[in-house]
Amino acid sequence: MPASIVENLKVITQRIENACIKSERNPSEVRLLLATKTVSAENIKIAIEAGQNLIAENKVQEAKEKYESLKSIPHESHFIGHLQSNKIKDLLKCDISCIQSIDRLDLAQKLHQRLLFENKTMEVLIQVNTSNDESKFGIHPDQAVQLIQQVSELETLKIKGLMTIGLFSAETEKVRKCFQLLNKIQQETIVVNFPNVEMKELSMGMSSDLEIAIEEGSTIVRVGTAIFGQRIHPDSYYWDESKS
Ligand SMILES: *Cc1c(COP(=O)(O)O)cnc(C)c1O
Fold first, then answer.
1. Span 11-31, pLDDT tens digits
2. 237 lines ligand 1 (CB under 6 A)
3. CATH topology (fold) of 2-230
4. Stated pTM of the model
5. Residue 223 Cβ < 6 Å to ligand 1
6. Whose Cα sits closest to atom 10 in ligand 1?
7. How far apart (Å, rounded) are the C-alpha atoms in residues 80 and 127?
8. Which terminal residue of the chain, N or C, has fewer Cβ atoms less than 10 Å from its own Cβ?
């Protein structure tokens, strides 16, 4: 297992590079984020020691459990799961630098209140549901710009871009449409130029579709399975924080 993590990382890094070359992008524009749900702290350590520095959990409980074991090793942590407001306080104890899954105003407001109380700020991405899939989270694409505007008024939250989960489909062009939609919302928002909003990140692309995402402008690819192997539960289990 440990040897394969290092091997898998080489393969993923190569896939990212090849996709960048294909779309005439500089590989330094695309960050690899390790989606570490269900992965043990031991195995995460192996990946960090192999040169990775960005990891993310989906569940607050898991983030808390691994935080202690990993805090002595320099790395950066994001949060990519569906966040319930009653877990904000716990999440803020885990030294998270960016919450990628802000998808509703009431969550943003509660996060803002807590950050004010703790005298902190937080980088966030707005999660958009680009696949029309009822089972996934994210703001409806038609309401994304409005949510960005509302969140931009909460001064502890620093919007850095957008996140999406592409459609799970073998039909490449349908998957591509999701990423194109996220890119389009980014462009629309850049034109409006909201104060306190920096629309630079597009977090999109996973193990199976990172090449398409990179071709459509991804700056952060979130990869789990292709590095750490298959998980026992279906993804819907990890995307729903209420099922913890
Ligand atoms: C699990 C997960 C990923 C990574 O998915 P893989 O298919 O395992 O690469 C990316 N983004 C989110 C939000 C996830 O929950």
1. 999 999 999 999 999 999 999
2. no
3. TIM Barrel (3.20.20)
4. 0.95
5. yes
6. 222
7. 9
8. N
